[in-house]
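Give me the fold.
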Amino acid sequence: MKNILTLEKLQIGYAGQALSSPLDLQFKAGTTLGIVGGNGAGKSTLLRTLLGQVRPIQGRFQWAEGTHFGYVPQKNEIDDLFPFSVLEVLQMGLYPQVLKWGKGTEPSLVRAREILQKIEMLPHEKKLFRELSGGQKQRVLLGRALMARPPVLLFDEPFNSLDHGFRQKFWKLLKEWQSEYHLSLILIEHDINLIINHVDQVILLGPHQSISGEKAKVLQQEILEGVLETPLHVHHEDAGIQIHFL
């Protein structure tokens, strides 16, 4: 597999103040990367750096040529003052390909309804987006990100509004689409236990140091305690790994 993203001694921060140790990583296309850290650890800064919005303190990163992104934000970013329907919000994922805002071609309508079916929102296609629950809005934003079939999907704490039942369906759906479209997934999350059994590589941002690499390398108790600066226990069970903070 080719690398879709390479980090070489990348150090992030603002105004010359570093928020991470130098990070090295070769992120393979078609795999899943988790970016984990507490509040203020630099997760959003790292994301903005990788999107070219913030310059790194030092080092470099490089995306594979032609890479474009689908983005699922942490919070709803659509102004509730505008009466967009669920179907129209999905079609925003193809803007500016569609000729008019919310008025797509027949193929875009077909694709939008296929995605709505998969995220269990097809019966609500005519409902106003602003009338949905938080979890329903999150599903629709996921669908919008998938409309243009991006090679990379970025998620900013996607589980905040999802109940446990749909979290499991969410992972199943992502893995199906990852296999079908060879998607590369990047998930930003403050709770490592929400993603740790679903990722291949991890960037762990701690208060004073960071580590990046294959999951098996990062998920060592001594390493986790050193980076997160807190006592913990790595528990292996049939369903996977759980990290218990003591």
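Residues 98-102 have pLDDT under 50 and may be disordered.
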